[in-house]
User: What shape does this take?
Amino acid sequence: MRIILFSWEYPPRIIGKLAEYVSALASQLVRNKVDTHVVTYHDSLTGVVSEGNGVKVARVANPVRTHISVLTWVLTLNQEVERTAANVYYQAEKRISLIDVFDWHFIPAAVTLKNAFGVPFVYSVESLEDHRSPAPSSPFSMAIKSIEWLGFYEAAKITVKSEWMRGEIVRIHNVPAEKIRVVHIDSNSGVKDVLALYKAVAAGGLNSE
Amino acid sequence: MKSTLSVMMFSWEFPPRVIGGISPHVYFLSKSLAKNGVKVYVVTCDFPGAPAHEVIDGVEVYRVDSYRNPSPDFATWVYLMNVNMQREAASLVAKLAGKIDVFHAHDWLVANAGIGLKHVFRKPLLVTMHSTEVGRREGVHTDTERMIHETEAWLTYEAWRVICCSEYMVSHVKWAFGLPSDKLVMVPNGVNTHVYERIEQEDLRLFRSKFALPEEKLVLFVGRLVYEKGAHVLINAIPKVLAKVNAKFVVVGSGYMKEQLSNIVKSMRLEHKVLFTGFLDEEALLKLQKCADVSVVPSLFEPFGIVALEAMAAKSPVAVSDTGGLSEIVEHDVSGVKVYPNNPDSLAWGITKVLSDEKFRSSIRENAYRRVQEKYDWDKIAQQTKLVYEAVLGEYSKSFWA
Assistant: This one.
């Protein structure tokens, strides 16, 4: 199995809890013999780095340096994510089992790649705009919510870390509850759950191995 | 046996969605390319009442969800619209089993879609730069303007070739983004003379009387009422023209300067001599261009100057500022009059010269029409564009992407 993880934070760039979580998941996947690629952001281009734990990390920079909001910053970064993921795809002779996207930032890239290559994606939700934003109905937050919605709509499966979050996604975005799985990777059986989910998603994709 | 060349064009506007000059450009270019044996797919924004998919003279037009929620601002909307455009175009290319040879983007408004799909499908990207932010704003002053400028730089960097519609734009774009000369190519913008031939025989006296008195000469301005188009220069020239010739000034178009301009007209007590029509439909505009005794293009910044070309195709004499693409379109005293940009005295002189000499008027009119047919014919422009595609594909075939 070959997968790509998309995350806007990854060590050494740590913004919140997501960086450590994605890093821990990636190294456990490698231990389970999954060819694991991470596409993330870094301000200086380090290219594709094979780190000690076997995870292949590609860090992309934003081609547009000046921005007026995190939204425009994210939206011009997505093409670089696509370019990098496409490089992995072509180098692997088009055999990618799936993409796992952490939070909304790189949803547009995952959606494009799904529509272009038939590679399914999982949307792993860390937090929602409705909970983060002081004004969830402002045009700015609505735009982010529309990207979240696009992710829920186009994803093969959604993962969350709690039953509460599962309920919130159902409540806010009207997503069918059975599309959402609660996973914990801290517990011993955790990564097995994620692997089983990945296998099911990959089997349903057009590009399954 | 070589299969048909196919191109996917991205444009934020396509008829019936008409905001500026890109819409008619992409419309006529794609139709003329189709006539010259190129398979063309146009991916553009939706428009109320227009179908999501239609075929126009062989051109496949796809209209995508343009993100209709309220947006924080225009630039953010552009990037959000590109998310949808890219998604739908990706699925379209996949359905065609990747049978697209080149992607062709028009301006930064579709930069993300063009760049993303280039890398995803590993096909060459071309861009036509119709304008630049640094030109529109006379420099970059705010973060939004800098962001747009950098997006344009990114797009021209990613493009295999950058097409510009005038020699002026070639040198401007080269300077603005520091591009190598061999990346740039000039293919002029075109104009369709046939639409004017259609109304050649019509009696337009009644139509004209809605805009001007029979004894008044009709001076026409067509363009968005924004700073760079220079309508304010024309308004400042009006008293100087009226001192010599009796004329009516008809201003077609709208924009953020509209209220300001009509206030200036009021304060000059010229309401009876200036008519703001707002945005006119195509038919009325064609007729008005045919009726005009002089068409004025007083732009401060003009990458190409399609309005001047349309007036010339309508056999209306032109007075234009000697700037940008306008300088190349008009030959002074031969196919029109050129005046100093941003100079009401010079503009008044030019207008008066055209209006007061009937013989001169008909000579520049005939020369201009001939020039339009020789150089700005869409069929010829499509053939030139096709040659650019073929040259790029020749280079591409030797790359590791092929």
